[in-house]
Amino acid sequence: MDKVVSSAEEAIADIADGMTISVGGFGLCGIPSVLIDALLRAEIYDLEVVSNNCGVDDWGLGRLLAARRIRRMVSSYVGENKEFARQYLSGELEVELTPQGTLAERMRAGGSGIAGFFTRTGTGTHVAEGGLPWRYDTYGEVALASPAKQTQHFDTPNGLTEFVLERAITADFGLVRAWKGDRHGNLVYRDAARNFNPVAAMCGAVTIAEVEELVEPGDLDSNFIHTSGVFVHRVVELTPEQADDKRIERLVTQPRPDQEAVR
After folding, report:
1. For the domain 4-115+168-244, what is the CATH code?
2. Distance, CA of 188 to CA of 174 (rounded, Å)
3. pLDDT confidence of residue 259
4. pLDDT tens digits, 138-170
5. DSSP one-letter string for the chain
6. Average confidence (pLDDT) per 10 residues, the chain, 263 residues
7. Domain boundaries, the chain
């Protein structure tokens, strides 16, 4: 089945207001920036976004946030985006902060048909006991807090140990970016750009992949495919310019050796 569509606009055409989308990437690494920009142009509102973080102020999901398209975030990290923090603290944005490994496993579980799982992460904290601020009011008071979660003790090598139940995450659409992809939707990510992309692809009921290099079926070594085409429904081939347009979240450099010698 050829899953390639002609444009990002065509790929996201049936995403509607109020839907939940899972988005791959970590910071600005491996984010589906072309699909995100297509969403921005489509003027879709009240989105719930499941992603490790929300980009930066002027790139990635940060652009949707600045345009007030996002109603709720399920994420692990707020840093590097001042508008994210401002909207959250002023009561304009609902945020469900989730431990990073737990978030990844909740997404993977959703894609695997698993309703939930028990983990030790968060036991004895507000993650399990409830009370984490999800939304503030305009006066800075907590308007909505996280509920308490079910806990249970299990026998472990260290004795009877408490675990907390975490529920799986599923999304209406998943948006991911891959280094290579074929027409059947099989995807390969490159190095650290793999990050949250595989689980974002898994938990979307309809998953759209933008690929930097489109290849023919059979060209990818089946031993090294990271996301099977069974999880991918649409593929968007990027232009060379789009594939090369990658931002650096925080540029950190060292002096050149010759400059160091001058000092």
Report:
1. 3.40.1080.10
2. 16
3. 66
4. 999 999 999 999 999 999 999 999 999 999 999
5. ---EES-HHHHTTT--TT-EEEE--BTTBT--HHHHHHHHHHT--SEEEESS---BTTBTHHHHHHTT-EEEEEES--TT-HHHHHHHHTTSSEEEE--HHHHHHHHHHHHHT--EEEESTTTTSHHHH---EEEE-TTS-EEEEPPP--EEEEEETTEEEEEEEEE---EEEEEEEEEEEETT--EE--GGGGTTHHHHHHHEEEEEEEEEEEE-TT-S-GGG-SB-GGG--EEEEPPHHHHH----SS------HHHHHH-
6. 96 98 95 97 97 92 96 90 92 96 98 97 96 95 97 95 98 98 98 97 98 97 97 97 89 78 55
7. 4-115+168-244
